[in-house]
Design goal:
It catalyses: 2 nitric oxide + NADPH + 2 O2 = 2 nitrate + NADP(+) + H(+); 2 nitric oxide + NADH + 2 O2 = 2 nitrate + NAD(+) + H(+). The chain is of the alpha/beta class and 402 residues long. The chain has helices at 4-11, 14-35, 45-49, 52-66, 75-87, 92-110, 116-146, 233-244, 279-290, 312-318, 369-381, and strands at 155-164, 169-176, 190-197, 202-209, 219-224, 250-253, 269-274, 297-303, 324-330, 342-344, 362-366, 389-392. The strands form 2 sheets. Strands 4-3-6-1-2-5 form a 6-stranded antiparallel beta sheet, with helices on one face. Strands 10-9-8-7-11-12 form a 6-stranded parallel beta sheet, sandwiched between helices.
């Protein structure tokens, strides 16, 4: 049990964490991987390369230190982390490894500032956090085990269909090799897939939103090809799926996870997406239409042009729904675009008549971090209550808005 004096010591490190948190977490990951290189097969090395993982961990450690008096207030954030962890098959033994190297890193990075009392305080505090997370993740694992068709860890799935959705996005239809049932999912959730990447000599996991409505037979993921002379590690995985994973091939898949899901309310919904960020929203929209929902629906999407606009054929079918309206933004508008729904430029909510949206409309945003931040802030400025805005950032959580 952490004492009041130890809580004070942990809180006292908040200024240091604000200034040097990423330095600490970069040192921590380097230290841990040097002692446990096998964990490079567990962690997304792309997020190590672009520093998003180090930033996310630094933000999480800072938030924990700030709320050390009552860390349960962080449960909504910790649930999102726990969902990601269970999709990667993170287990309690991993917390022991992380704890050992995190505490050692605090001592080594802070140097003379790291008194024995401070190290003892952070050791107890980390143990408290690890127990909270492990217990929460244990409940998620148990729920998966109790779910019909559910599983924990990795399960082999075969690609039964590979379909180009645009010039840069391809869908993969995944069916369980064992022929058994698959766990149902909530529209908006993701799965992790794991493939071997020869360039890295590692197995690498990646999360991809399920881009179809629940159907009881398969999961569909829709993956964007990355272009450029020097691909980052994330691009290596996505492009390997494009270039080397074909119909009949087998990949490891985790059970569905994630808490960015469509609510069960009857409120109108407004979907706002940029690029491949539309994939979880496609699942939500397909589910609403398949279920015959009469919730008013609006689709707002931006990408570079029609040839890069995945699922535009679905939009054409959805527009027959009386409660559906769409607003599409292209960088370049060609002659074949629908002038009634397509505009040139970036997504801009000020160019949409929001009088069509009811005051109780729910807004679901997905895209790059800057895209999410802009439209979240635009909605707040327009008077939308925060409780009606939901968003998902692909990769580690680095956005703090709610």
């Amino acid at each position: 049990m952490i004492t009041d004096a130890q809580k004070d010591l942990v809180r006292g490190t908040v200024p240091i964490l604000k200034e040097h948190g990423v330095t600490l977490t970069k040192y921590f990951y380097s230290r841990m991987f040097s002692h446990h290189p096998e964990l490079r097969n567990v962690f997304n090395m792309g997020n190590q390369q672009n520093a998003k993982q180090q930033t996310a961990l630094a933000m999480a450690v800072l938030a924990y230190a700030e709320h050390i008096e009552n860390p349960t207030v962080l449960l909504p954030v910790l649930d999102a982390i726990g969902q990601k962890h269970t999709s990667l098959s993170i287990r309690p033994e991993h917390y022991r490894i992380v704890g050992k190297h995190l505490i050692a890193s605090i001592r080594e990075v802070l140097g003379d500032l790291a008194s024995d009392e401070l190290i003892d305080a952070w050791t107890v505090a980390y143990g408290q956090l690890a127990e909270l997370m492990a217990n929460h993740e244990g409940q998620i694992y148990q729920k998966l085990a109790d779910t019909e068709g559910g599983w924990t860890g990795w399960r082999p799935f075969a690609v039964r269909k590979k379909e180009a959705e645009s010039d840069e996005i391809t869908s993969f239809y995944l069916y369980p090799v064992d022929g058994g049932k698959i766990a149902d999912f909530k529209p908006g959730q993701f799965i992790s897939v794991r493939i071997f990447v020869p360039q890295l000599n590692l197995f690498q996991p990646r999360q991809y939103s399920i881009s179809c409505a629940p159907n009881g037979a398969y999961y569909r993921i829709s993956v964007k090809r990355e272009f450029g002379g020097e691909l980052n590690f994330n691009g290596m995985v996505s492009n390997r799926l494009h270039d080397f994973i074909n119909t009949g091939d087998i990949i490891d898949v985790s059970a569905p996870a994630g808490n960015f899901v469509l609510s069960a309310s009857e409120n109108p919904v407004v979907f706002i997406s940029g690029g491949v960020g539309q994939t979880p929203l496609i699942s939500m929209m397909e589910d609403l239409i398949a279920s015959g929902s009469d919730r008013p629906k609006a689709w707002i999407h931006g990408c570079r042009g029609r040839n890069l606009h995945a699922f535009h054929h679905d939009l054409a079918a959805w527009k027959t729904d009386a409660d559906f309206e769409r607003h599409i933004f292209y960088d370049v508008v060609d002659a074949g675009a629908d002038p009634g729904s397509v505009r040139q430029g970036w997504v801009d909510l000020q160019h949409i008549d929001r009088r069509n949206f009811a005051p109780n409309s729910e807004y679901y945003i997905c895209g790059p971090a800057s895209f999410i931040t802009k439209h979240y802030n635009d909605l707040i400025a327009a008077g939308v209550d925060r409780s009606f805005i939901f968003f998902e950032e692909f990769g580690p959580q680095t956005i703090q808005l709610n």
